[in-house]
Amino acid sequence: MKQGDLVVRKSYGGDILFRVAAFAGQQAVLRGMDYRLLADAPMNDLQTVRNPDELGGTRQARIHADESLRRISELHNRQSGISGYLAHLDDRRPPYFELPGKVLHLDGDLNYLNKSMQVYRQLRVPAEGVHCHESQMPQVLMRMLPQFRPDIVVITGHDGVLKQKQDLQQLGSYKNSLNFVRAVDVAREYERSRDSLIVIAGACQSHFEALLQAGSNFASSPGRIMIHALDPVYIAVRASFTPFRETININDVIAHTISGRQGVGGIETMGRYRVGVPNLKAANPEQNVNIM
Predict the structure, then answer these.
(1) pLDDT at 65 (0 to 100)
(2) What's one Pfam family here (predicted)?
(3) For residue 198, what are the domain limits?
Protein backbone atom coordinates (compact mmCIF):
# COMPACT_ATOMS: atom_id res chain seq x y z
CA MET A 1 0.00 0.00 0.00
CA LYS A 2 1.31 3.44 -0.92
CA GLN A 3 0.36 7.11 -0.70
CA GLY A 4 -2.40 7.95 -3.16
CA ASP A 5 -4.04 4.51 -3.10
CA LEU A 6 -7.83 4.28 -2.90
CA VAL A 7 -8.94 2.33 0.18
CA VAL A 8 -11.88 1.51 2.44
CA ARG A 9 -11.92 0.65 6.15
CA LYS A 10 -12.87 -2.97 6.80
CA SER A 11 -14.05 -2.23 10.35
CA TYR A 12 -16.66 0.20 8.94
CA GLY A 13 -17.87 -2.22 6.28
CA GLY A 14 -16.18 -0.32 3.48
CA ASP A 15 -18.82 2.42 3.62
CA ILE A 16 -16.62 5.35 2.51
CA LEU A 17 -13.97 5.60 -0.17
CA PHE A 18 -10.72 7.28 0.94
CA ARG A 19 -7.40 8.19 -0.60
CA VAL A 20 -4.28 7.55 1.49
CA ALA A 21 -2.80 10.99 2.20
CA ALA A 22 0.14 10.01 4.44
CA PHE A 23 1.51 7.41 6.81
CA ALA A 24 2.34 7.77 10.50
CA GLY A 25 3.91 4.56 11.78
CA GLN A 26 1.33 1.81 11.40
CA GLN A 27 -1.45 4.36 10.89
CA ALA A 28 -2.63 5.85 7.61
CA VAL A 29 -4.09 9.37 7.24
CA LEU A 30 -7.14 9.23 4.99
CA ARG A 31 -9.05 11.87 3.02
CA GLY A 32 -12.57 11.12 1.84
CA MET A 33 -13.10 11.00 -1.92
CA ASP A 34 -16.80 11.93 -1.90
CA TYR A 35 -17.20 13.33 1.61
CA ARG A 36 -15.21 16.03 3.40
CA LEU A 37 -13.95 13.64 6.05
CA LEU A 38 -10.42 13.38 7.46
CA ALA A 39 -9.72 10.11 9.26
CA ASP A 40 -6.97 7.75 10.29
CA ALA A 41 -6.91 3.99 10.51
CA PRO A 42 -4.50 1.12 11.22
CA MET A 43 -2.86 -0.25 8.11
CA ASN A 44 -4.30 -3.71 8.72
CA ASP A 45 -7.84 -2.24 8.70
CA LEU A 46 -7.50 -0.95 5.15
CA GLN A 47 -8.42 -2.67 1.92
CA THR A 48 -7.24 -1.37 -1.44
CA VAL A 49 -9.96 -0.57 -3.99
CA ARG A 50 -9.28 -1.00 -7.69
CA ASN A 51 -12.71 -0.17 -9.10
CA PRO A 52 -14.48 2.48 -6.96
CA ASP A 53 -17.68 2.25 -9.01
CA GLU A 54 -18.27 -1.22 -7.62
CA LEU A 55 -18.81 0.24 -4.14
CA GLY A 56 -22.46 0.89 -3.35
CA GLY A 57 -21.71 3.91 -1.17
CA THR A 58 -19.55 5.49 -3.84
CA ARG A 59 -22.18 4.97 -6.53
CA GLN A 60 -24.83 6.51 -4.28
CA ALA A 61 -22.65 9.50 -3.44
CA ARG A 62 -22.01 10.18 -7.12
CA ILE A 63 -25.70 9.87 -7.94
CA HIS A 64 -26.40 12.45 -5.24
CA ALA A 65 -23.63 14.68 -6.62
CA ASP A 66 -25.09 14.52 -10.14
CA GLU A 67 -28.50 15.39 -8.70
CA SER A 68 -27.00 18.36 -6.83
CA LEU A 69 -25.35 19.65 -10.01
CA ARG A 70 -28.66 19.28 -11.86
CA ARG A 71 -30.40 21.35 -9.20
CA ILE A 72 -27.71 24.02 -9.35
CA SER A 73 -28.09 24.19 -13.15
CA GLU A 74 -31.87 24.49 -12.85
CA LEU A 75 -31.42 27.33 -10.38
CA HIS A 76 -29.18 29.16 -12.82
CA ASN A 77 -31.60 28.62 -15.70
CA ARG A 78 -34.50 29.99 -13.66
CA GLN A 79 -32.47 33.02 -12.69
CA SER A 80 -31.57 33.64 -16.35
CA GLY A 81 -35.07 32.93 -17.66
CA ILE A 82 -36.03 36.58 -18.13
CA SER A 83 -32.82 37.27 -20.00
CA GLY A 84 -33.43 34.35 -22.32
CA TYR A 85 -37.01 35.43 -22.95
CA LEU A 86 -36.05 39.01 -23.87
CA ALA A 87 -33.24 37.85 -26.10
CA HIS A 88 -35.65 35.54 -27.95
CA LEU A 89 -38.15 38.37 -28.56
CA ASP A 90 -35.82 40.87 -30.23
CA ASP A 91 -32.81 38.70 -31.07
CA ARG A 92 -30.57 41.02 -29.06
CA ARG A 93 -28.80 40.87 -25.75
CA PRO A 94 -30.96 41.83 -22.74
CA PRO A 95 -30.85 45.56 -21.90
CA TYR A 96 -29.25 44.94 -18.51
CA PHE A 97 -26.19 43.18 -17.12
CA GLU A 98 -25.98 40.73 -14.24
CA LEU A 99 -23.74 40.86 -11.17
CA PRO A 100 -23.79 37.55 -9.30
CA GLY A 101 -22.12 37.59 -5.90
CA LYS A 102 -18.35 37.00 -6.02
CA VAL A 103 -17.06 33.91 -4.23
CA LEU A 104 -13.74 33.38 -2.48
CA HIS A 105 -13.38 29.62 -1.89
CA LEU A 106 -10.70 28.29 0.47
CA ASP A 107 -10.33 24.53 0.40
CA GLY A 108 -8.04 22.13 2.23
CA ASP A 109 -8.43 19.56 -0.56
CA LEU A 110 -7.08 20.38 -4.03
CA ASN A 111 -9.24 17.76 -5.74
CA TYR A 112 -12.42 19.18 -4.23
CA LEU A 113 -11.30 22.73 -5.01
CA ASN A 114 -10.86 21.86 -8.68
CA LYS A 115 -14.32 20.28 -8.79
CA SER A 116 -15.81 23.33 -7.08
CA MET A 117 -14.14 25.78 -9.46
CA GLN A 118 -15.43 23.78 -12.41
CA VAL A 119 -18.98 24.24 -11.13
CA TYR A 120 -18.47 27.98 -10.59
CA ARG A 121 -17.13 28.38 -14.13
CA GLN A 122 -19.94 26.32 -15.62
CA LEU A 123 -22.54 28.55 -13.96
CA ARG A 124 -20.63 31.80 -14.58
CA VAL A 125 -20.21 32.56 -10.90
CA PRO A 126 -17.21 34.88 -10.43
CA ALA A 127 -14.97 32.93 -8.08
CA GLU A 128 -11.40 32.78 -6.80
CA GLY A 129 -10.15 29.46 -5.43
CA VAL A 130 -7.28 28.96 -3.00
CA HIS A 131 -5.88 25.62 -1.88
CA CYS A 132 -4.23 25.71 1.53
CA HIS A 133 -4.03 23.62 4.67
CA GLU A 134 -6.86 24.28 7.10
CA SER A 135 -4.40 25.66 9.66
CA GLN A 136 -3.26 28.32 7.15
CA MET A 137 -6.74 29.59 6.30
CA PRO A 138 -6.83 32.50 8.80
CA GLN A 139 -3.59 33.94 7.40
CA VAL A 140 -4.66 33.36 3.79
CA LEU A 141 -8.02 35.05 4.39
CA MET A 142 -6.34 38.03 6.01
CA ARG A 143 -4.40 38.55 2.79
CA MET A 144 -7.08 37.60 0.24
CA LEU A 145 -10.14 39.44 1.60
CA PRO A 146 -8.95 43.01 0.88
CA GLN A 147 -7.38 41.85 -2.38
CA PHE A 148 -10.41 40.04 -3.86
CA ARG A 149 -13.25 41.79 -1.94
CA PRO A 150 -15.72 38.88 -2.18
CA ASP A 151 -19.43 38.85 -1.40
CA ILE A 152 -19.30 35.21 -0.29
CA VAL A 153 -16.53 33.27 1.46
CA VAL A 154 -16.39 29.47 1.55
CA ILE A 155 -14.10 28.00 4.24
CA THR A 156 -13.95 24.24 3.93
CA GLY A 157 -11.73 21.19 3.59
CA HIS A 158 -11.62 18.15 5.85
CA ASP A 159 -12.70 17.68 9.45
CA GLY A 160 -13.83 14.95 11.81
CA VAL A 161 -14.30 14.07 15.46
CA LEU A 162 -11.14 12.71 17.09
CA LYS A 163 -11.52 9.10 18.23
CA GLN A 164 -10.14 9.76 21.72
CA LYS A 165 -12.36 12.81 22.23
CA GLN A 166 -16.07 12.33 22.88
CA ASP A 167 -17.09 15.78 24.21
CA LEU A 168 -18.67 17.24 21.08
CA GLN A 169 -18.99 20.69 22.66
CA GLN A 170 -15.21 21.12 22.92
CA LEU A 171 -13.37 22.44 19.86
CA GLY A 172 -10.41 20.30 20.86
CA SER A 173 -12.47 17.23 19.97
CA TYR A 174 -12.30 18.07 16.27
CA LYS A 175 -9.51 17.82 13.74
CA ASN A 176 -10.02 21.18 12.05
CA SER A 177 -13.05 22.96 13.53
CA LEU A 178 -10.81 25.32 15.52
CA ASN A 179 -8.99 26.28 12.32
CA PHE A 180 -12.30 27.00 10.62
CA VAL A 181 -13.49 29.08 13.59
CA ARG A 182 -10.29 31.15 13.50
CA ALA A 183 -10.78 31.74 9.78
CA VAL A 184 -14.38 32.88 10.37
CA ASP A 185 -13.08 35.26 13.06
CA VAL A 186 -10.78 36.84 10.46
CA ALA A 187 -13.66 37.20 8.00
CA ARG A 188 -15.79 38.94 10.63
CA GLU A 189 -12.97 41.28 11.61
CA TYR A 190 -12.88 42.30 7.95
CA GLU A 191 -16.68 42.67 7.61
CA ARG A 192 -19.05 42.34 10.55
CA SER A 193 -22.32 42.44 8.58
CA ARG A 194 -23.56 38.96 7.72
CA ASP A 195 -25.46 40.39 4.75
CA SER A 196 -22.47 42.25 3.29
CA LEU A 197 -20.17 39.22 3.54
CA ILE A 198 -21.75 35.77 3.56
CA VAL A 199 -19.60 33.11 5.24
CA ILE A 200 -20.08 29.38 4.62
CA ALA A 201 -17.81 27.27 6.83
CA GLY A 202 -17.11 23.71 7.90
CA ALA A 203 -16.69 20.17 6.64
CA CYS A 204 -17.65 16.68 7.83
CA GLN A 205 -18.69 16.54 11.49
CA SER A 206 -17.57 20.14 12.14
CA HIS A 207 -18.62 22.03 15.28
CA PHE A 208 -21.74 23.72 13.88
CA GLU A 209 -22.56 25.85 16.93
CA ALA A 210 -19.03 27.27 17.25
CA LEU A 211 -18.93 28.21 13.58
CA LEU A 212 -22.26 30.04 13.82
CA GLN A 213 -21.19 31.83 17.00
CA ALA A 214 -18.00 32.94 15.27
CA GLY A 215 -20.08 34.61 12.56
CA SER A 216 -20.87 32.07 9.83
CA ASN A 217 -24.11 32.42 7.90
CA PHE A 218 -24.14 28.73 7.01
CA ALA A 219 -22.14 25.95 8.64
CA SER A 220 -21.79 22.22 9.11
CA SER A 221 -22.63 19.94 10.76
CA PRO A 222 -25.64 20.17 13.12
CA GLY A 223 -25.86 16.38 13.39
CA ARG A 224 -22.06 15.84 13.29
CA ILE A 225 -22.49 13.83 10.11
CA MET A 226 -20.56 13.69 6.84
CA ILE A 227 -21.29 16.34 4.22
CA HIS A 228 -20.78 15.92 0.52
CA ALA A 229 -17.95 17.78 -1.23
CA LEU A 230 -20.37 19.95 -3.23
CA ASP A 231 -22.71 21.02 -0.41
CA PRO A 232 -20.79 24.27 0.35
CA VAL A 233 -20.68 25.02 -3.39
CA TYR A 234 -24.43 24.57 -3.73
CA ILE A 235 -25.07 27.06 -0.92
CA ALA A 236 -22.55 29.55 -2.36
CA VAL A 237 -24.22 29.44 -5.78
CA ARG A 238 -27.65 29.98 -4.22
CA ALA A 239 -26.30 32.97 -2.31
CA SER A 240 -24.65 34.32 -5.45
CA PHE A 241 -27.88 34.21 -7.48
CA THR A 242 -30.41 35.26 -4.83
CA PRO A 243 -31.32 38.97 -5.35
CA PHE A 244 -29.90 41.30 -2.71
CA ARG A 245 -33.41 42.43 -1.71
CA GLU A 246 -34.51 38.86 -0.97
CA THR A 247 -33.72 36.49 1.87
CA ILE A 248 -32.06 33.24 0.86
CA ASN A 249 -34.68 30.54 1.38
CA ILE A 250 -32.95 28.58 4.17
CA ASN A 251 -35.30 25.62 4.19
CA ASP A 252 -35.15 25.22 0.43
CA VAL A 253 -31.37 25.61 0.23
CA ILE A 254 -30.66 23.10 2.98
CA ALA A 255 -33.29 20.64 1.75
CA HIS A 256 -31.56 20.54 -1.63
CA THR A 257 -28.07 19.89 -0.29
CA ILE A 258 -26.96 16.27 -0.38
CA SER A 259 -26.50 16.00 3.39
CA GLY A 260 -29.71 17.86 4.37
CA ARG A 261 -30.53 19.42 7.75
CA GLN A 262 -28.28 17.14 9.75
CA GLY A 263 -25.36 18.17 7.56
CA VAL A 264 -25.86 21.91 7.06
CA GLY A 265 -27.64 24.72 8.89
CA GLY A 266 -27.76 28.49 8.79
CA ILE A 267 -29.45 31.80 9.57
CA GLU A 268 -31.55 34.26 7.58
CA THR A 269 -29.34 36.01 5.04
CA MET A 270 -29.91 38.40 2.13
CA GLY A 271 -28.72 37.36 -1.33
CA ARG A 272 -25.91 39.06 -3.28
CA TYR A 273 -27.23 39.11 -6.87
CA ARG A 274 -27.81 42.44 -8.66
CA VAL A 275 -28.68 43.66 -12.14
CA GLY A 276 -27.60 46.93 -13.72
CA VAL A 277 -28.25 49.05 -16.81
CA PRO A 278 -27.33 49.64 -19.53
CA ASN A 279 -25.82 46.48 -20.96
CA LEU A 280 -22.76 48.00 -22.61
CA LYS A 281 -21.98 44.76 -24.45
CA ALA A 282 -25.44 44.88 -26.04
CA ALA A 283 -24.92 48.46 -27.20
CA ASN A 284 -21.33 47.82 -28.32
CA PRO A 285 -20.90 44.11 -29.15
CA GLU A 286 -17.24 44.57 -30.11
CA GLN A 287 -16.37 46.56 -27.00
CA ASN A 288 -14.55 44.67 -24.24
CA VAL A 289 -16.40 45.66 -21.06
CA ASN A 290 -15.69 44.13 -17.66
CA ILE A 291 -18.11 45.21 -14.92
CA MET A 292 -16.91 42.68 -12.31
Answers:
(1) 65
(2) Peptidase_U57
(3) 64-276
